[in-house]
């Protein structure tokens, strides 16, 4: 959170609006409706069929940290490195999509997969 504040990135905390354990299908519509970017450590959303449908239906732009073993300070550093790439992807691609943020701050599109040419 401190990294987002320091970088002047407006944000909403999930727990500021919804109780812990609220199903993704319940809050994902708000993310899409508001045009927010979803930043998460939950790598499984893109694999769950109902959640994937919700991402698509509500045009959600999701960025997921792919390393679950990051401290808060490490995550802040990764986010700071990744932020320009996140902004570029948001300008370049229309939602819905899922992108991965690596521990080095690289950002890679994960879904939808590009069709082979």
Report on the structure:
Helix 3 packs parallel to helix 4. The protein is of the alpha/beta class and 117 residues long. The N and C termini lie far apart (41 Å). It is built from five helices and four strands, in the order αααβαβαββ. A four-stranded mixed β-sheet has the order 1-2-3-4, covered by helices on one side. Helix content is 43%, strand content 16%. The protein has one domain.
SS class: alpha/beta
Helix content bin: 40-55%
In whole angstroms, the N-to-C terminal distance is: 41 Å
- In round numbers, the mean pLDDT is 87
Radius of gyration: 14 Å
Give the strand line-up of the largest sheet.
Answer: 1-2-3-4
The count of domains is 1
Number of strands: 4
In what range is the share of β-strand residues? 15-25%
Main β-sheet: number of strands, strand sense, barrel status?
4 strands, mixed
Order of helices and strands: HHHEHEHEE
Our count of helices gives 5
Low-confidence stretches: none
Shape estimate: globular
Brief write-up:
By secondary structure, this protein is an alpha/beta fold. Helices cover 43% and strands 16% of the residues.
